[in-house]
Amino acid sequence: MAKLILICKASAVVLLTSLLLNSSIANGQQTGRGINDYPQLWDNVPDSLDGFVTIHNKTVINPWNYLERMGMYKILLSVTAKYMNNFGPGNTGNVLWGLPLQHGWQFKTGRLADPSNVSSCGHQTGDSLCISTRSWWSCMNYYLATIPFLGAVEAGFFDEWPFEVEILPPEEHMGDFCYNTADCHALIPDTMTKWTTFFQLLKNTKDISQNTLSPNISPEEDNIWHHMWIAHVASIEAALTKFSERLRYISAPEAQFGVSWGSAVEFIAATHFHTNFNQTNIFQAYLPQRMLLANDKAPSIPDLSKEENWTLLALDILYKGNKMTDGWLLKVWRRSMCSERGRAEGRYLLENIAANPDLISSGIRKLLLEYIKNHNCAITDA
Ligand SMILES: *[C@@H]1O[C@H](CO)[C@@H](O)[C@H](O)[C@H]1NC(C)=O
Ligand SMILES: *[C@@H]1O[C@H](CO)[C@@H](O)[C@H](O)[C@H]1NC(C)=O
Ligand SMILES: *[C@@H]1O[C@H](CO)[C@@H](O)[C@H](O)[C@H]1NC(C)=O
Ligand SMILES: *[C@@H]1O[C@H](CO)[C@@H](O)[C@H](O)[C@H]1NC(C)=O
């Protein structure tokens, strides 16, 4: 009982703080910046396996090169396009857009470069397309790029391709990664299975394109988002554990941001957030557009925008609030997101919170209502 009261207090403090901070800081308008931004160098990225070198009957992909890693995403967008007709015109609704757009943001903001300053990998003065195995962001992203790609391979998306696909290992830390489906099932079985399951689900979804586009998403569509997020969260959870020692190469505020962002993704996932082309662009405009330095302290980083300042602070509060209450916040959030109605409220809140801080109190009220209604809910991974 005492513990429960403590937890309630703690979360009340968290919610109240975020409420106050939100209304005093984030009263800016949605600028609309970021819309229609393709990832960096998108036109130079190969969109089919033809764009890669094939030697000795093996098509070779080097995931430690930005164009090639991004190429895996562009290929995935292309081969899944036919299952995404109902999600939006011109493949803009593809559920995978969040991944390449995030990767483009990582590249643009210097997060894929060698942070240890030992090599010139990823730096403008050196091999600017190189992705460093010492970068925490690069390693995290490997699990959200190569693993999904191999999941699609396993689900049979490239069965027509006449050659074997070979993923090149990096020069160091080889044991931290996997290079083919069998390898990945051995290294991170749960994550690999979830990505394969997601791609198999797509393959088996035939009816969806016959529905007409409607504002309410169908259970089939929601199921696709659901499985994408299950796999996404599994990748982050596996990678967070594996790559925590990479955090020592980056500044303390950057490390804190990275970890709290990883944790926030679990809240985002629970809403089955629609990380399509448009939404992801709007959303990630609020993420810091440069790496954080040792002396940066949100929300008073002068050269960041108001929204970037606020986002950093909000992520910090969310992370600490959840940690302080032993994961209770995430549990409450997940239960509120157990119904489609709750998830729709959650998505609406996430989409509009930065532009309209007044939403937060009415949003929390609605979510609590869903929380109470969803008492019989079996909480799943995402
Ligand atoms: C590539 O595959 C073809 C068809 O299976 C085979 O004839 C050829 O010898 C192979 N080439 C190499 C270099 O293994
Ligand atoms: C994305 O925005 C474009 C341009 O405003 C619009 O035509 C398209 O329908 C949007 N896509 C989705 C999935 O909402
Ligand atoms: C290495 O670090 C120093 C000091 O932090 C910096 O001035 C320099 O530009 C860095 N070099 C590279 C290659 O990033
Ligand atoms: C970010 O926050 C700091 C402190 O509140 C402020 O000085 C800075 O101007 C903010 N950036 C913008 C563009 O609002």
Name every ligand kind in the structure: 2-acetamido-2-deoxy-beta-D-glucopyranose
Number of strands: 3
The coarse silhouette is: globular
Trace the largest sheet across and list its strands.
1-2-3
Query: What is the rounded Rg?
Result: 21 Å
**What helical percentage do the residues reach?**
40-55%
The total domain count is: 2
Query: What ranges have pLDDT less than 50 throughout 5 or more consecutive residues?
Result: 19-32
Terminal CA distance: 29 Å
Topology:
Elements: H1 2-25, E1 53-55, E2 58-61, H2 66-80, H3 98-108, H4 136-142, H5 146-154, E3 164-167, H6 181-187, H7 189-204, H8 219-242, H9 252-270, H10 277-284, H11 306-324, H12 328-336, H13 340-352, H14 359-373
Parallel strand pairs: 2-3
Antiparallel strand pairs: 1-2
Helix pairs in contact: 1-11, 2-3, 3-10, 5-7, 6-7, 7-8, 8-9, 9-11, 12-14, 13-14
This protein binds 2-acetamido-2-deoxy-beta-D-glucopyranose (4 copies).
Describe, in short, the structure shown.
By secondary structure, the chain is mainly α. It has helices spanning 2-25, 66-80, 98-108, 136-142, 146-154, 181-187, 189-204, 219-242, 252-270, 277-284, 306-324, 328-336, 340-352, 359-373; strands at residues 53-55, 58-61, 164-167.
